[in-house]
Each structure stands twice: as structure tokens, then as C-alpha cells.
């Protein structure tokens, strides 16, 4: 089930961040800020009591910025990131935002593939964006409003029946 993240999820998201991003994980303080800031909207994918994935965006006046998306290693390839991203795009679209932007490491083909599948295209290269590793990032963007959230039937193709319950976070 997808639902809006709340501050009570903090402990579980700290754990998930470290399992997904290792030494690049957000700290507890950074996560607390992300969950509390009015301009941020985060969603979690929860199965019983376990949070298997999460993602969120920053909402500006016209543009949204995808902040992060991550799924536990043992829960990957089940369509969880795709479902979260579809809901994130739909939510930003409903707010009347016009574009969603993001940055992604050039050495992350899985994420680049995911974003391209959801209509993002590369707009430029940000040299040395990720420090201290000095890894470049692709800047990617996707129009909102005119285009649907993602591949049609994406959720139902990948998830079992009981997992298709999705509630709107707004
Ligand atoms: C990238 C990530 C979020 C994908 O999560 P997921 O739940 O496994 O993704 P899904 O099952 O929803 O897959 C959706 C699409 O993403 C792409 N994708 C996912 N994993 C992929 C991989 N290992 N290689 C290539 N493409 C991949 C594919 O296009 C896939 O569609 P398909 O299955 O029809 O080919 C996950 O691998 C992850 O958490 N990685 C570490 C954190 C990270 O890099 N986050 C993104 C940057 S912040």
C-alpha cells in the first residue's frame, strides 16, 4: 500500500536509507527535515508493518524536484519504485506544477532506466555534482499536465492483487 510518509516513520526510514544508500544515506536530521518541511511530499510503500520503499519531491511554484526514491534490495524488481513514481508524478500534476526535474548519478543505469520509462529526458550534465566521490549527474526533466504518470498498466502488471491498494496522500 502506498501512503503519505509521516514523522512517525522516521526510525524505519533511517534504517531503509542506510540499507539502500549505504554511506551516502541521509542522516537522521536530514530525513527529519525532509519529512517535516511543508514544501516536501514523501510517500512510502508499506507491506504490513514494513516499509519497503519510499520517495518524495520538493514542490516549488511551478516546478517539482524529485528528491529521492529507493527500494530495499530484497523488494526490487516488483514494480515498487514505478508505483511510487507514478503516484509522485500524479500528485505533482494535481498541484498544478508544470515540470518535474531531477538529478541522477551517471553511473546508476537502473535509476536512469526507471526515469526514462516515466518520460524523463536528459537536459544536461552536472560535472562533479556528487561529492566527495566527484561523480557527474544527469539533469533530467519531464513535463507535467499533458502526459500521463507512466506506462499504462504498470502497477497491475507488476504487483500481486493484494498489493494494488493505493490510497491518495492528498
Ligand atoms: C532504482 C530503484 C529505485 C528501482 O526500484 P525497483 O522497485 O526495483 O524498480 P521497479 O521494479 O519499479 O522497476 C521499474 C523500472 O525501473 C528500471 N529498472 C529497475 N531496476 C533496474 C535494473 N537493475 N536495471 C535496469 N533497469 C532497472 C526498469 O526500467 C524497470 O522497468 P522494467 O521492470 O519494466 O524493466 C532501486 O534499484 C533502488 O532503490 N536503487 C538504489 C537507490 C537508487 O539508486 N535510487 C535512485 C536514485 S535517488
Automatic annotation (TrEMBL):
GO cellular component, one term: ribosome
Enzyme Commission number(s) from the entry: 2.3.1.266
GO molecular function: protein-N-terminal-alanine acetyltransferase activity
Residue stretches making up the N-acetyltransferase domain: 1-145
Catalytic EC class: transferase
Keyword Ribonucleoprotein attached: yes
Keywords: Acyltransferase, Ribonucleoprotein, Ribosomal protein, Transferase
Top-level taxon of origin: Bacteria
Keyword Ribonucleoprotein: yes
PANTHER family in alphabetical order: AMINOALKYLPHOSPHONATE N-ACETYLTRANSFERASE-RELATED-RELATED
Protein name: Ribosomal protein S18-alanine N-acetyltransferase
Amino acid at each position: 500500500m502506498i501512503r503519505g510518509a509521516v514523522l512517525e516513520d522516521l526510525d524505519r526510514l533511517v534504517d531503509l536509507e542506510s540499507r539502500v544508500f549505504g554511506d551516502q544515506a541521509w542522516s537522521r536530521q536530514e530525513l527529519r527535515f525532509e519529512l517535516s518541511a511543508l514544501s516536501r511530499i514523501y510517500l512510502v510503500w508499506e507491506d504490513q508493518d514494513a516499509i519497503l520503499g519510499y520517495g518524495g519531491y520538493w514542490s516549488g511554484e511551478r516546478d517539482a524536484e524529485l528528491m529521492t526514491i529507493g527500494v530495499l534490495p530484497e523488494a526490487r524488481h516488483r514494480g515498487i519504485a514505478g508505483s511510487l513514481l507514478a503516484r509522485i508524478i500524479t500528485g505533482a500534476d494535481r498541484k498544478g506544477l508544470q515540470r518535474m526535474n531531477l538529478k541522477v548519478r551517471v553511473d546508476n543505469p537502473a535509476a536512469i532506466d526507471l526515469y526514462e520509462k516515466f518520460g524523463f529526458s536528459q537536459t544536461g550534465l552536472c560535472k562533479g555534482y556528487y561529492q566527495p566521490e566527484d561523480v557527474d549527474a544527469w539533469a533530467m526533466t519531464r513535463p507535467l499536465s499533458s502526459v500521463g504518470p507512466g506506462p499504462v498498466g504498470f502497477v497491475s502488471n507488476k504487483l500481486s492483487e493484494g498489493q494494488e491498494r493505493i490510497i491518495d496522500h492528498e
